[in-house]
Amino acid sequence: MREAMFIKKNAEKWKAYQLDETNDPDKSSEQFITLMDDLAYAKTFYPRSKATKWINGLASTVYQNIYKNKKEKYARVFTFWKYELPLVIRKHHNTFLFTTLIFCTFVAIGVFSSMHNPQFVRGILGDNYVNMTEDNISKGDPFGVYKEDNKFNMFLRIGLNNITVSFLTFIGGFSLGLFTLKILWGNGIMLGSFEYMFFAHDLGLKSILVVWIHGTIEIASIIIGGAAGFILANGILFPDTYTRIESFKRNAKDAAKILICLIPFFLTAAFLESYVTQLMSQTYDKKPDGMPTWVSIIILLSSLTLIIWYFIIWPIMLYREGYFIKKDGIVSRLQHGNA
C-alpha cells in the first residue's frame, strides 16, 4: 500500500484518537493496540515518514494516559481507606454509639441471667457445648475447643461464617432494623453467657487472654456490622430533608462501604482464632509449645488500639481538620475553619 493511501485510510482515526481524552482504560487499551499495529506497519514500509512519527507520538500519549489512569486507580483505593471511609464512619458516629450500647446491654443481660439461673447458659450455648467445655476444664484443657488439626480449613470456615453474619446483619436493615437487632441480641446474650461460664470456674482472666485474641476484632466487627444495618434502616425511617428514596440510597451507599471494610477485619479475626488462639490455649494446657502471656497482651492491646483509632479517633481528627465528602462523593477540605 502506498504511503498516501495508508495515511488517507487512517488519518481520520488518528485525529479522533488525538482529540479523544478518554478515561476509560478499556477504550485506551484498544486505541493503544490499534496504534501499535499501525506503527509496526508504518515502521516497516515508511520508516522515515512524518506519519510514522505522528503515530509514534499518539501511541506514547495513549500509553501515558493508561499509566496515569492506573495510578489514579491505586490512589482512589488509598483515598477510600484513609479519608472517605473514616468520614462516612464519622457521619454516623451516633449510630455506632447506639449500636455499641445496645450490644453491651445484651451482653449484660446474658451475664445477669446466667448468674441467677444456672440453666440459662445451657439454654443459650446448648448442652453439648457446655458439657464439652466442662469436660475440658476438668481435664485441665479449658480451651480445647479451639484446637483443630487442619488450621486452614478452620480459617476458611470461621472467616466465611463471620462474613455471613455481617452480611445478614446489614441485610437486617431492610426489616427496619428488627432483624439486625435480633442478631445483636443473639450474639450479645451468647457472649455474656459464654464469658460467665469461664468466670464461674475462676477462668475469667485466662479466657480474656485466650478468647479475646481474636474476639476483640470479631466482636467489634459484629457491632460495626450492626451499625451498618441500623444506618440502612435510618435511611428508610428518618429521611430528614431528603425524599425517602433519596435518603435510603444515601444511607445504603454508606452502609455498603462500612460492610466492605469489615471483610479484612473478619478475615484477620479468623486467622487469629485459627492460628494464634490455639497457641495461647496450649499455655494453659501446660504444653511446651504454648505462647507467652505477654504476646497475648500485645495482640489484645494492638487490636483494641486499631479499632479505637480507625473507627473513633481518626474520623474525628479528619472532621476537625475540615475534611468532608462532597455531593459527588469526592473528598475535599475546607480552606479555613472546621467542618
- DSSP helix fraction: over 70%
Helix vs. strand class: mainly alpha
Strands of the largest sheet, in order across it? 1-2
User: What distance separates the N and C termini?
Assistant: 65 Å
Query: Biggest β-sheet, characterized?
Result: 2 strands, antiparallel
Short description:
With about 350 residues, the chain is mainly alpha-helical.
Describe it.
The chain is mainly alpha-helical. It has two domains: 3-77; 92-333, no CATH class. It contains eleven helices and two strands; from the N terminus they run H-H-H-H-H-H-H-H-H-H-H-E-E. It has helices spanning 3-19, 25-45, 50-91, 93-116, 118-125, 127-138, 151-171, 178-200, 204-237, 244-283, 293-320, and strands at 323-325, 331-333. The N and C termini lie far apart (65 Å). The model has no long low-confidence stretch (mean pLDDT 83).
Keywords summarizing the entry:
two-stranded antiparallel ribbon, 11 helices, 2 strands, elongated
Fold blueprint:
Elements (H helix, E strand, L loop, with lengths): L2 H17 L5 H21 L4 H42 L1 H24 L1 H8 L1 H12 L12 H21 L6 H23 L3 H34 L6 H40 L9 H28 L2 E3 L5 E3 L6
Antiparallel strand pairs: 1-2
Helix pairs in contact: 1-3, 2-3, 3-10, 3-11, 4-5, 4-8, 4-9, 5-6, 5-8, 7-8, 7-9, 7-10, 8-9, 9-10, 9-11
